[in-house]
Amino acid sequence: MNIEGLDYNTQREKLVLPEYGREIKKMVDHAISLPTKEERQKCANSIIAIMERMFPQNRENQDYKHKLWDHLALLSDFKLDIDWPYDVDEAQKITSKPEPLKYPMENIPVRHYGKMMFEIFEKLKTMEPGEERDELVRITANQMKQNLYQWSHGSADDEKVISDMARFTDGKIQIDIDTFKFEKLMPKETEKKKGKKR
Question: Fewest CB atoms less than 10 Å from the CB: which of 48, 72, 128, 159?
Fold first, then answer.
């Protein structure tokens, strides 16, 4: 829909530093268009004074004035021909975005157990029988049950945990369901009653 006289932000030029708004951008564009360097300098000083008043809480920061002049350089796309009181050559770094971090995508057979649990399964495959392995089996089985409980909306079957433990350790770890004791699961917090009793 295009109605004459209506001007939407989505149709306008994207702002480099939106925190200053379109009015400051218009002032900067006006300063660039002024014919003499003296007029441009005077206008730039006025714009900096307005920008400073917009964010008075930042005055305590180190190099505050320098940052304002860097912002002015960015707003003018470095086209404002004035005597800059600071070196604004590094101003472009303010708007540059860091490279996105790569998220490690690995194939996990059962997501609710998580990547770390599968690393433990690999460790259990190579461990010699003994107290250390038994303790790790105990901790792992209880964590598996906790994960299963959380992801299955409150149900966790002991047989499922024992079956998965044997499956993911290639049969190296066999838990006896009759003798193994799982830790008691803490029930999920019940929703707080919306109304208070009087």
Answer: 128
pTM as predicted: 0.48
| Helix, strand, coil percentages in the chain from 3-state DSSP, rounded to 5 | 55, 0, 45
Q: Which long-range contacts (CB under 8 A, 24 or more apart) does 188-191 make?
A: 188/154
- Asked if pLDDT for residue 139 goes beyond 90, the answer is yes
By the 8 A CB rule, do 133 and 174 touch? no
Q: How many other CB atoms are found less than 10 A from the CB of residue 197?
A: 4
**Distance between CA 145 and CA 143 in Å, rounded?**
5
C-alpha dihedral sign at 76, 77, 81, 84: positive
Contacting residues for 70 by C-beta, under 8 A, at least 6 apart: 86, 88, 90, 91, 94
For residues 48 and 72, the answer to whether their CB atoms sit within 8 Å is yes
Tell me if 91 sits within 8 A of 74, measured CB to CB.
Answer: yes
Largest CA distance in the chain: 92
pLDDT band at 190, cuts 50/70/90? Answer: very low
- Any idea of the CA torsion for 119, 120, 121, 127, to the nearest 10 degrees? 120
**Tokens standing for residue 74:** 């960015």
CA distances from 88 to 81, 92, 113, 174 (A): 12, 8, 52, 68
